[in-house]
SMP-30/Gluconolactonase/LRE-like region domain-containing protein (Diploscapter pachys), 379 residues
Amino acid sequence: MQRIEHREEAFARHGEDAFAPLREQLVDEDAAAGPGLSLHARDCAPRRRRCRGRDLPAPPPLAMLRQHRRRGRGAQMTWRTVAQGLRFPEGPVAMPDGSVILVEIAAGRITRIDAEGRIDVVAEPGGGPNGLAMGPDGKLYCCNNGGFNWHEAGGFLAPHGQADDYSGGRIERIDPLRGTVDVLYADGDFGCSLRGPNDIVFDAHGGFWFTDHGKTRPRERDVTGIFYAKADGSFLEEVVFPSENPNGIGLSPDGSRLYAAETYTCRLMAFDVIAPGKVAPGGGPGGPGIPVYRPAGYKFFDSLGVEAGGNVCVATIGESGISVVSPTGDLVEFVATDDVFTTNICWGGDDLHDAYVTLSGSGRLVTMRWPRPGLRLAY
Protein backbone atom coordinates (compact mmCIF):
# COMPACT_ATOMS: atom_id res chain seq x y z
CA MET A 1 0.00 0.00 0.00
CA GLN A 2 1.47 3.33 -1.04
CA ARG A 3 2.15 5.74 1.82
CA ILE A 4 1.45 9.46 1.49
CA GLU A 5 4.43 11.47 2.70
CA HIS A 6 3.93 14.00 5.47
CA ARG A 7 4.89 17.49 4.35
CA GLU A 8 8.18 17.62 6.33
CA GLU A 9 9.18 14.24 4.87
CA ALA A 10 8.36 15.39 1.35
CA PHE A 11 10.54 18.46 1.65
CA ALA A 12 13.32 16.59 3.41
CA ARG A 13 13.45 14.23 0.45
CA HIS A 14 12.79 16.63 -2.39
CA GLY A 15 13.60 20.13 -1.11
CA GLU A 16 12.03 22.82 -3.28
CA ASP A 17 11.16 20.07 -5.79
CA ALA A 18 8.56 18.45 -3.51
CA PHE A 19 5.91 19.28 -6.09
CA ALA A 20 7.60 17.27 -8.87
CA PRO A 21 4.62 14.89 -9.19
CA LEU A 22 2.41 17.83 -10.09
CA ARG A 23 4.60 18.67 -13.05
CA GLU A 24 5.91 15.32 -14.21
CA GLN A 25 2.82 13.14 -14.04
CA LEU A 26 0.00 15.42 -15.10
CA VAL A 27 -0.41 18.66 -16.97
CA ASP A 28 -3.66 20.34 -15.96
CA GLU A 29 -4.13 23.86 -17.25
CA ASP A 30 -7.12 26.13 -16.66
CA ALA A 31 -6.35 28.49 -19.52
CA ALA A 32 -9.74 27.87 -21.11
CA ALA A 33 -11.37 29.67 -18.19
CA GLY A 34 -9.44 32.90 -18.84
CA PRO A 35 -7.31 34.94 -16.44
CA GLY A 36 -10.10 37.28 -15.37
CA LEU A 37 -12.53 34.64 -14.10
CA SER A 38 -13.11 33.74 -10.49
CA LEU A 39 -11.88 30.47 -9.03
CA HIS A 40 -15.49 29.25 -9.07
CA ALA A 41 -15.74 29.91 -12.79
CA ARG A 42 -12.43 28.15 -13.36
CA ASP A 43 -13.65 25.12 -11.46
CA CYS A 44 -16.69 24.90 -13.76
CA ALA A 45 -14.63 25.27 -16.95
CA PRO A 46 -13.57 22.31 -19.12
CA ARG A 47 -10.21 20.81 -18.17
CA ARG A 48 -7.53 19.43 -20.44
CA ARG A 49 -5.57 16.50 -19.07
CA ARG A 50 -2.59 14.82 -20.63
CA CYS A 51 -1.09 11.83 -18.87
CA ARG A 52 2.68 11.44 -18.91
CA GLY A 53 2.60 7.68 -19.17
CA ARG A 54 2.97 6.76 -15.51
CA ASP A 55 0.38 5.74 -12.94
CA LEU A 56 -0.66 8.58 -10.67
CA PRO A 57 -0.04 8.16 -6.95
CA ALA A 58 -3.15 7.44 -4.93
CA PRO A 59 -4.22 10.07 -4.12
CA PRO A 60 -1.81 12.43 -5.94
CA PRO A 61 -1.09 15.88 -4.50
CA LEU A 62 -2.78 17.46 -7.52
CA ALA A 63 -5.96 15.54 -6.76
CA MET A 64 -5.85 16.98 -3.26
CA LEU A 65 -5.63 20.44 -4.73
CA ARG A 66 -8.63 19.78 -6.99
CA GLN A 67 -10.62 18.44 -4.06
CA HIS A 68 -9.67 21.52 -2.06
CA ARG A 69 -10.99 23.79 -4.81
CA ARG A 70 -14.14 21.75 -5.56
CA ARG A 71 -15.18 21.78 -1.91
CA GLY A 72 -15.28 25.56 -2.07
CA ARG A 73 -13.02 26.13 0.92
CA GLY A 74 -11.71 29.66 0.99
CA ALA A 75 -13.09 32.91 -0.29
CA GLN A 76 -14.23 32.93 -3.92
CA MET A 77 -12.80 36.18 -5.26
CA THR A 78 -11.89 37.40 -8.70
CA TRP A 79 -8.25 37.84 -9.65
CA ARG A 80 -7.21 39.92 -12.66
CA THR A 81 -3.95 39.18 -14.44
CA VAL A 82 -1.66 42.23 -14.62
CA ALA A 83 1.26 40.51 -16.37
CA GLN A 84 2.25 37.03 -17.47
CA GLY A 85 5.25 35.31 -19.00
CA LEU A 86 7.40 36.18 -15.98
CA ARG A 87 10.17 33.85 -14.83
CA PHE A 88 9.12 32.87 -11.30
CA PRO A 89 8.08 36.31 -10.01
CA GLU A 90 8.40 37.13 -6.31
CA GLY A 91 9.01 40.06 -3.95
CA PRO A 92 6.41 42.55 -5.29
CA VAL A 93 6.73 46.21 -4.24
CA ALA A 94 3.81 48.52 -5.10
CA MET A 95 5.06 51.93 -6.22
CA PRO A 96 3.33 55.34 -5.85
CA ASP A 97 2.88 55.67 -9.63
CA GLY A 98 0.74 52.50 -9.79
CA SER A 99 3.50 50.24 -11.07
CA VAL A 100 4.80 47.15 -9.30
CA ILE A 101 8.49 46.28 -9.09
CA LEU A 102 9.23 42.61 -8.52
CA VAL A 103 11.97 40.03 -8.96
CA GLU A 104 12.11 37.28 -11.54
CA ILE A 105 14.14 34.72 -9.66
CA ALA A 106 14.76 32.35 -12.57
CA ALA A 107 15.88 35.22 -14.84
CA GLY A 108 18.11 36.91 -12.24
CA ARG A 109 16.49 40.30 -12.81
CA ILE A 110 14.38 43.07 -11.27
CA THR A 111 11.34 44.05 -13.32
CA ARG A 112 8.86 46.92 -13.31
CA ILE A 113 5.26 46.32 -14.46
CA ASP A 114 3.18 49.44 -15.04
CA ALA A 115 -0.56 49.75 -14.57
CA GLU A 116 -1.16 48.76 -18.22
CA GLY A 117 0.91 45.61 -17.88
CA ARG A 118 3.98 46.87 -19.75
CA ILE A 119 7.18 45.21 -18.56
CA ASP A 120 10.59 46.90 -18.24
CA VAL A 121 13.85 45.62 -16.80
CA VAL A 122 15.09 47.66 -13.82
CA ALA A 123 18.32 45.77 -13.05
CA GLU A 124 20.00 42.42 -13.61
CA PRO A 125 21.82 41.35 -10.43
CA GLY A 126 22.02 37.68 -11.48
CA GLY A 127 21.99 34.82 -8.99
CA GLY A 128 18.55 34.49 -7.42
CA PRO A 129 16.97 37.83 -6.48
CA ASN A 130 14.17 36.94 -4.08
CA GLY A 131 12.81 39.38 -1.48
CA LEU A 132 12.60 43.09 -2.28
CA ALA A 133 11.86 46.24 -0.24
CA MET A 134 12.13 49.99 -0.65
CA GLY A 135 14.62 51.57 1.75
CA PRO A 136 14.89 55.01 3.38
CA ASP A 137 17.20 56.29 0.63
CA GLY A 138 14.82 55.49 -2.24
CA LYS A 139 16.88 52.44 -3.21
CA LEU A 140 15.63 48.88 -3.49
CA TYR A 141 17.08 46.34 -1.08
CA CYS A 142 17.19 42.80 -2.43
CA CYS A 143 17.67 39.43 -0.76
CA ASN A 144 19.64 37.39 -3.29
CA ASN A 145 19.60 33.64 -2.63
CA GLY A 146 22.47 32.87 -5.02
CA GLY A 147 20.36 30.88 -7.48
CA PHE A 148 18.36 27.68 -7.96
CA ASN A 149 18.37 24.96 -10.53
CA TRP A 150 15.01 24.86 -12.33
CA HIS A 151 12.57 22.30 -13.63
CA GLU A 152 10.09 23.30 -16.31
CA ALA A 153 7.28 21.16 -17.74
CA GLY A 154 3.85 21.87 -19.15
CA GLY A 155 4.29 25.62 -18.85
CA PHE A 156 5.04 25.32 -15.13
CA LEU A 157 8.34 26.43 -13.59
CA ALA A 158 9.67 25.34 -10.19
CA PRO A 159 12.96 25.63 -8.28
CA HIS A 160 14.97 22.44 -7.90
CA GLY A 161 17.70 22.73 -5.29
CA GLN A 162 20.86 24.81 -5.14
CA ALA A 163 22.08 26.09 -8.50
CA ASP A 164 25.04 24.37 -10.10
CA ASP A 165 26.49 27.87 -10.54
CA TYR A 166 25.41 29.05 -7.07
CA SER A 167 26.90 32.51 -6.53
CA GLY A 168 26.45 32.85 -2.76
CA GLY A 169 23.84 34.53 -0.59
CA ARG A 170 23.91 38.32 -0.31
CA ILE A 171 21.99 41.53 0.30
CA GLU A 172 22.07 44.00 -2.59
CA ARG A 173 21.20 47.68 -2.90
CA ILE A 174 19.74 48.60 -6.27
CA ASP A 175 19.16 52.02 -7.78
CA PRO A 176 15.75 51.74 -9.49
CA LEU A 177 16.52 54.68 -11.81
CA ARG A 178 20.01 53.75 -13.00
CA GLY A 179 19.84 49.98 -12.54
CA THR A 180 23.12 49.81 -10.64
CA VAL A 181 23.61 46.94 -8.19
CA ASP A 182 25.86 47.10 -5.13
CA VAL A 183 26.49 44.21 -2.74
CA LEU A 184 25.73 45.54 0.74
CA TYR A 185 26.35 42.33 2.72
CA ALA A 186 27.85 39.03 1.58
CA ASP A 187 28.46 35.64 3.13
CA GLY A 188 31.02 35.97 5.93
CA ASP A 189 30.48 39.68 6.65
CA PHE A 190 30.31 40.44 10.37
CA GLY A 191 30.86 36.73 11.00
CA CYS A 192 27.48 35.84 9.49
CA SER A 193 26.71 32.98 7.13
CA LEU A 194 24.39 34.02 4.31
CA ARG A 195 23.23 30.99 2.35
CA GLY A 196 19.93 31.95 0.74
CA PRO A 197 18.50 35.32 1.89
CA ASN A 198 14.80 35.27 1.14
CA ASP A 199 12.46 38.00 2.42
CA ILE A 200 12.96 41.47 3.89
CA VAL A 201 11.09 44.18 5.83
CA PHE A 202 12.23 47.61 7.03
CA ASP A 203 11.37 48.95 10.47
CA ALA A 204 10.67 52.57 11.44
CA HIS A 205 14.30 53.03 12.54
CA GLY A 206 15.77 52.56 9.08
CA GLY A 207 17.10 49.06 9.68
CA PHE A 208 15.76 45.88 8.15
CA TRP A 209 14.98 42.32 9.13
CA PHE A 210 15.50 39.47 6.69
CA THR A 211 15.22 35.71 6.60
CA ASP A 212 17.72 33.22 5.24
CA HIS A 213 15.88 30.23 3.84
CA GLY A 214 19.12 28.37 3.11
CA LYS A 215 19.79 26.03 0.20
CA THR A 216 18.84 22.44 -0.45
CA ARG A 217 21.17 19.83 -1.89
CA PRO A 218 20.49 16.17 -2.74
CA ARG A 219 20.95 14.83 0.82
CA GLU A 220 21.16 17.95 3.00
CA ARG A 221 19.84 21.45 3.57
CA ASP A 222 21.19 24.44 5.47
CA VAL A 223 20.27 25.36 9.03
CA THR A 224 19.72 29.11 8.97
CA GLY A 225 18.34 32.09 10.89
CA ILE A 226 16.75 35.53 10.96
CA PHE A 227 18.93 38.65 10.66
CA TYR A 228 18.88 42.38 11.33
CA ALA A 229 21.00 44.89 9.41
CA LYS A 230 21.48 48.61 8.87
CA ALA A 231 20.89 50.10 5.45
CA ASP A 232 24.30 51.83 5.34
CA GLY A 233 26.23 48.56 5.43
CA SER A 234 27.63 49.17 8.93
CA PHE A 235 25.90 46.43 10.91
CA LEU A 236 24.69 42.86 10.36
CA GLU A 237 23.67 40.38 13.05
CA GLU A 238 22.04 36.97 13.17
CA VAL A 239 19.33 37.57 15.79
CA VAL A 240 17.48 34.22 15.74
CA PHE A 241 19.28 30.91 15.27
CA PRO A 242 18.34 28.27 14.49
CA SER A 243 15.11 28.91 12.62
CA GLU A 244 13.37 26.20 10.65
CA ASN A 245 13.76 27.31 7.01
CA PRO A 246 12.37 30.84 7.54
CA ASN A 247 10.75 32.43 4.51
CA GLY A 248 8.28 35.35 4.77
CA ILE A 249 8.88 38.13 7.28
CA GLY A 250 6.88 41.14 8.45
CA LEU A 251 6.22 43.52 11.34
CA SER A 252 3.01 44.28 13.21
CA PRO A 253 1.55 47.76 12.66
CA ASP A 254 3.17 49.14 15.84
CA GLY A 255 6.48 47.36 15.18
CA SER A 256 6.38 45.45 18.45
CA ARG A 257 6.01 42.01 16.89
CA LEU A 258 8.07 40.30 14.22
CA TYR A 259 6.43 37.56 12.17
CA ALA A 260 8.27 34.85 10.25
CA ALA A 261 6.75 32.05 8.17
CA GLU A 262 8.54 28.72 8.05
CA THR A 263 8.12 26.74 4.83
CA TYR A 264 8.70 23.08 5.61
CA THR A 265 7.06 23.13 9.05
CA CYS A 266 4.32 25.46 7.75
CA ARG A 267 4.36 27.49 10.97
CA LEU A 268 3.79 31.20 11.44
CA MET A 269 6.12 32.34 14.22
CA ALA A 270 5.93 35.55 16.29
CA PHE A 271 8.76 37.29 18.14
CA ASP A 272 8.46 40.18 20.59
CA VAL A 273 10.65 43.09 19.44
CA ILE A 274 12.21 44.78 22.49
CA ALA A 275 14.56 47.20 20.67
CA PRO A 276 15.69 47.81 17.08
CA GLY A 277 17.18 44.52 15.95
CA LYS A 278 16.46 42.73 19.24
CA VAL A 279 13.81 40.18 20.22
CA ALA A 280 12.81 38.84 23.62
CA PRO A 281 15.00 35.81 24.38
CA GLY A 282 12.48 33.50 26.04
CA GLY A 283 9.34 33.20 23.97
CA GLY A 284 8.94 29.49 24.66
CA PRO A 285 10.82 26.28 25.51
CA GLY A 286 12.39 26.28 22.07
CA GLY A 287 13.94 29.72 22.43
CA PRO A 288 12.81 33.07 21.03
CA GLY A 289 9.42 33.18 19.37
CA ILE A 290 6.20 31.23 19.66
CA PRO A 291 4.15 29.45 16.98
CA VAL A 292 1.01 31.44 16.15
CA TYR A 293 -0.67 29.29 13.52
CA ARG A 294 -0.14 26.07 11.58
CA PRO A 295 -2.70 24.70 9.12
CA ALA A 296 -3.62 21.15 8.25
CA GLY A 297 -3.43 19.81 4.71
CA TYR A 298 -0.89 19.79 1.90
CA LYS A 299 0.32 23.34 2.54
CA PHE A 300 3.65 25.14 2.87
CA PHE A 301 4.17 28.77 3.84
CA ASP A 302 6.05 31.22 1.65
CA SER A 303 6.32 35.02 1.92
CA LEU A 304 3.87 37.23 3.79
CA GLY A 305 2.36 40.69 4.14
CA VAL A 306 0.58 42.42 7.01
CA GLU A 307 -2.76 44.22 6.87
CA ALA A 308 -3.29 47.63 8.46
CA GLY A 309 -5.46 45.99 11.12
CA GLY A 310 -2.74 43.51 12.08
CA ASN A 311 -3.80 40.34 10.25
CA VAL A 312 -0.93 38.42 8.68
CA CYS A 313 -1.47 37.29 5.07
CA VAL A 314 0.75 34.32 4.29
CA ALA A 315 1.24 33.14 0.73
CA THR A 316 0.53 29.41 0.82
CA ILE A 317 1.86 26.90 -1.69
CA GLY A 318 0.48 23.43 -2.34
CA GLU A 319 -3.22 23.88 -1.54
CA SER A 320 -2.64 27.37 -2.81
CA GLY A 321 -3.85 30.78 -1.77
CA ILE A 322 -3.45 33.45 0.88
CA SER A 323 -3.93 32.36 4.50
CA VAL A 324 -5.18 35.37 6.49
CA VAL A 325 -4.26 34.87 10.16
CA SER A 326 -5.23 37.12 13.07
CA PRO A 327 -2.61 38.23 15.64
CA THR A 328 -4.18 35.75 18.07
CA GLY A 329 -3.69 32.84 15.67
CA ASP A 330 -7.18 32.44 14.22
CA LEU A 331 -7.69 31.81 10.50
CA VAL A 332 -9.71 34.81 9.34
CA GLU A 333 -10.13 33.51 5.80
CA PHE A 334 -8.36 31.62 3.05
CA VAL A 335 -8.35 33.30 -0.37
CA ALA A 336 -7.78 30.62 -3.00
CA THR A 337 -5.55 30.92 -6.08
CA ASP A 338 -4.90 28.59 -9.02
CA ASP A 339 -1.10 28.27 -8.87
CA VAL A 340 0.54 25.84 -6.42
CA PHE A 341 3.46 28.25 -6.15
CA THR A 342 1.56 31.25 -4.76
CA THR A 343 4.50 33.06 -3.20
CA ASN A 344 3.92 36.67 -2.07
CA ILE A 345 1.49 39.55 -1.56
CA CYS A 346 1.70 43.34 -1.31
CA TRP A 347 -0.78 46.24 -1.41
CA GLY A 348 -0.94 49.44 -3.41
CA GLY A 349 -3.35 52.16 -4.50
CA ASP A 350 -4.30 55.29 -2.61
CA ASP A 351 -6.39 53.31 -0.12
CA LEU A 352 -4.06 50.25 -0.02
CA HIS A 353 -6.93 47.95 -1.00
CA ASP A 354 -5.27 46.81 -4.25
CA ALA A 355 -3.65 43.46 -3.46
CA TYR A 356 -0.95 42.14 -5.78
CA VAL A 357 0.00 38.46 -5.62
CA THR A 358 2.78 36.59 -7.40
CA LEU A 359 1.75 33.28 -8.97
CA SER A 360 5.26 32.07 -9.59
CA GLY A 361 4.88 28.64 -11.17
CA SER A 362 2.76 30.01 -14.02
CA GLY A 363 4.69 33.30 -14.19
CA ARG A 364 1.89 35.76 -13.40
CA LEU A 365 1.27 38.87 -11.34
CA VAL A 366 -2.42 39.13 -10.40
CA THR A 367 -4.47 41.71 -8.53
CA MET A 368 -7.82 42.15 -6.83
CA ARG A 369 -9.58 44.57 -4.49
CA TRP A 370 -8.78 43.30 -1.00
CA PRO A 371 -11.52 43.56 1.65
CA ARG A 372 -9.16 45.23 4.13
CA PRO A 373 -6.28 47.67 3.55
CA GLY A 374 -2.69 46.55 3.65
CA LEU A 375 -0.25 48.07 6.10
CA ARG A 376 1.53 51.18 4.87
CA LEU A 377 5.21 50.23 4.97
CA ALA A 378 7.95 52.30 6.56
CA TYR A 379 9.31 53.38 3.15
